[in-house]
Design a protein that fits this description.
heterodimer; A: about 140 residues; mainly beta; six-stranded antiparallel beta sheet; four-stranded mixed beta sheet; B: about 150 residues; four-stranded antiparallel beta sheet; 1 helix; about 5% helix; globular
Chain lengths: ~140, ~150
């Protein structure tokens, strides 16, 4: 997937370059029965908005739960928030005002500093899960 | 600030190009615009291909890139010189410059990419890009011409 990156200066750097825009594909393993699992951090000095399309899959020995949808990470000058977009399978991605009531659910949250995290329900020992994100960020 | 449009190499990437001059030329070096993110392990093979025949092949690694730039930093971007051990000659025609990988696992924080032509377009493109994301992959050739035409 094509990416746009910016190096601050020079040919080399000891730190990662800035992703300046364009589309970024991320794939995360969603651990079972986890509180506060970290996905990624978005820096409000660089970005105020990120459009995220996602596919979430959680499987146990008997079932596969899948959800597709989109949301926006939006910065309002003091804090980050998740603005829900369109989902299918609404049981699986919940906003922070709700709690996990079914084991296949996860809850996404973003801190005021832009750290995107998740809580996941307990699907047992044979569980596997992934969250694939297509993130379009708009550089400041 | 240097802004680059980059393509992680994945399994392989290739860029077709046409050498238009009538006289054959010697190639002293190939310079794909390589971007190193996080100094990934693995071996990268640069090939010059005409038709289905590989004319030239040479490998490099993240360590090679760092040695070339004289740095211990794990992030770099440069027209990385790949110098043939034997002289390479090409004649008028169409070729592919290809980079393939082995023993390499690409992640968002660790990958080798090939930058596209962007702010400083050097090679004329045979098509009209639909936007800055559609430019051809950037490279230079160090060429020694036989004649003056």
């Amino acid at each position: 997937l094509t990416r746009i990156i910016s190096f601050s200066d020079g040919f080399t750097s000891s730190t990662a370059p800035i992703l300046a825009g364009g589309s970024l594909f991320e794939e995360y393993t969603i651990l079972n029965a986890t509180l506060g699992g970290t996905l990624f951090t978005i820096d409000s000095s660089l970005y105020k908005t990120a459009f995220v399309d996602y596919e979430l899959i959680r499987e146990d020995s008997g079932n596969t739960y899948i959800q597709q949808g989109s949301f926006i990470l939006a910065y309002d000058s003091t804090t980050w928030a998740i603005v829900p977009g369109n989902f299918t399978g609404v049981d699986m991605l919940r906003d922070t005002t709700e709690s996990i009531t079914n084991p296949y659910e996860i809850i996404l949250d973003i801190s005021s500093l832009g750290v995107l995290t998740y809580d996941s329900g307990n699907m047992g020992v044979s569980y596997v899960g992934t969250l694939k994100l297509n993130i379009t960020r708009v550089a400041v | 600030v240097t802004t680059l449009v980059v393509n992680p190499i994945g399994t392989s990437l290739e860029q077709e190009f046409t050498y238009n001059l009538n006289d054959r030329c010697h190639i002293g070096a190939f310079y794909p615009y390589i971007v190193m993110i996080g100094s990934p392990s693995g071996t990268f093979t640069c090939e010059l291909i005409k038709g289905v025949t590989t004319i030239f092949s040479k490998t490099f690694t993240s360590t090679s890139i760092k040695l070339s730039l004289g740095t211990s930093n794990n992030y770099a971007h440069a027209f990385y010189p790949i110098i043939p051990d034997e002289p390479i000659q090409i004649e008028k025609g169409t070729y592919k410059l290809k980079i393939s990988t082995s023993g390499y696992a690409e992640t968002n924080s660790s990958y080798i990419a090939w930058a596209q032509q962007f702010e400083d377009i050097q090679n004329e493109m045979s098509y009209t890009p639909g936007g800055i994301l559609e430019n051809s992959l950037a490279f230079r050739l160090k060429i020694y011409k036989e004649g003056i035409n």
